[in-house]
Amino acid sequence: MMHRRNKQRELLLMIFVLCLFAAKTSSKYNYQTKYLDVPLDHFNYVNETVTFKLRYLTNDTYNSDGSGPILFYTGNEGDIELFAQNTGFMWELAPKLKASLVFAEHRFYGKTLPFGNASYDSPRNLGYLTSEQALADFAYLLAEINPSNRTTRGRPVVAFGGSYGGMLAAWFRMKYPHLVLGAIAASAPIRQFDAGCGVFNQILTSVFTVAYTRECSQNIARSWETLKNYSSTADGLKVLQEKFKFCTNVTKAEDITGTFFDYLGDVYGNLAMINYPYNTSFLAPVPAYPVREFCGRLAENYTGVELVSRLQEAVSIYSNYTGTTKCLDISSSYDSSMGDKGWEFQTCTEMMMPMCSEGTGKDMFPKKPWDEKKFSDDCFKKFGVRPKPKVAFTMYGGLYLDGVSNIIFSNGLMDPWSGGGVLRTGNSKVLVVLIPEGAHHIDLRASNENDPGSVEAARRIHVENIQQWLKQYRKANNYR
Fold this sequence. Notes:
Strand order of the largest sheet: 1-2-4-3-5-6-7-8
Order of helices and strands: EEEHHEHHEHEHHHHHHHHHEEH
CATH architecture of the domain at 199-319: Up-down Bundle
Helix content: 25-40%
Low-confidence stretches: 4-26, 333-339
Mean pLDDT: 91
Distance between the termini: 36 Å
CATH class of the domain at 199-319: Mainly Alpha
Structural class: alpha/beta
């Protein structure tokens, strides 16, 4: 899932995913862990013997004779085991289709580190961290485990992914249609590069506005100036320290208007993405409909110290729902197992998705314009690289999907990333599924008795289309 950071150079989230995926509980699903030597650079013949070990997970329980389809998860910015444990839809689908399951880890994330502990040491190493190389890894893996020849066609493969993984699933089908029969691309913002920098925060604001009462987003909008005022004096900082119980004492205004503001922005985005109708530990332990629970504590107009107190109570829904956290750590708002450093590099190269806030009634955030030059300069200072803003459109398409087929783009309309998703298309071979009550790629999660009807309907559409793709494949290839 992608990470959204208010610090623009660390932008984004796909959270997570951010991507789905923070529950470090006992394993619900079982798999074998395997490794395959893959080329470091798929597009350079000079050093083609340089390889690294790609980690992938497999389960053939439901495909005992080895003839069924392969359900292939295109791993995104994090440890692949987290995605395997939190993509229950694939596990529920496998026995119905008598399919094998494969979860492939993205290079530079999890345990797939091309240069080991030195993978992040220099831009020279990080230069091999691209979506194009990752897709080539996946293709190389499929060619190895599912070979085709003149007399025998490989088993049909359906790609799955959520958030950045959803982008990869769609692009995998586009770039390697001979290897991938179709793709379920959930909450995949492949149009975010050109969606408008304010769309994320506008949708996010609407989620908090409709979750309980309009006063919720209005209180958040007022809170920034209130917190800023308190941070301007020593006594005010002391009040904030006492109210929020920060793990590290706040001693200057920038601790609040910088670090804490960034933390709050992340929390609001994460709450919207994981606004599922049941308890979850995705990103953090939270109750069912956490945005509603949050807004229930900001249901009236508050000002001054009362607003600060109410905001603290609301934030605790995300930061301390279990009641076991003794202080508020504002240094990070998401699970450390997600690859935030790698994703930051990717946003500085091929994944630059402009973010801004307009304030003044348009969203609930302080006004913060998008400054592409500053973003680029920060990237160069940190990594020695500059972003290529529209390179993903050139490599894969996005605005226009002519010639593309067998891809389902699903988007929850309560997900702030939906503004960069495929919400309409003139291509009849590309299906758009809208989930009005859906949060971030909820349709890829395991079924739950509290799932809204629109989520259940989306999964039925996925299954029906996958079955149709498989039927057409069997007919065209005389495949049993």
